[in-house]
Amino acid sequence: MNVIVINGPMGIGKTTVGTYIADSNPGTAFIDGDWCMDHG
């Protein structure tokens, strides 16, 4: 199992890159850290 962590300031495309990686690799989960902030 591989884990990829994408970190950086807001607005630089982390979600775009994470979504692209997940869409390009079937069976991959993409967990957006903003969800944690919105619901925590």
Could you explain how this protein is built, in words?
The chain is an all-alpha fold and 40 residues long. It is built from 2 helices and no strands. The longest helix has 11 residues, at 14-24.
Summarize the structure.
The chain has helices at residues 14-24, 33-39.
Listing every helix as H and every strand as E from the N terminus to the C terminus, the arrangement reads: HH
Give the C-alpha Rg: 11 Å
Nearest-integer average pLDDT? 85
Number of strands: 0
Strand content: under 5%
Structural class assignment: mainly alpha
Largest sheet: none
Helix content: 40-55%
Uncertain residue ranges: none
Global morphology = globular
* Number of helical segments with 4 or more residues: 2
End-to-end CA span: 27 Å
List keywords for this structure.
45% helix, single chain, mainly alpha, 40 residues
Secondary structure: elements and pairs:
Elements: H1 14-24, H2 33-39
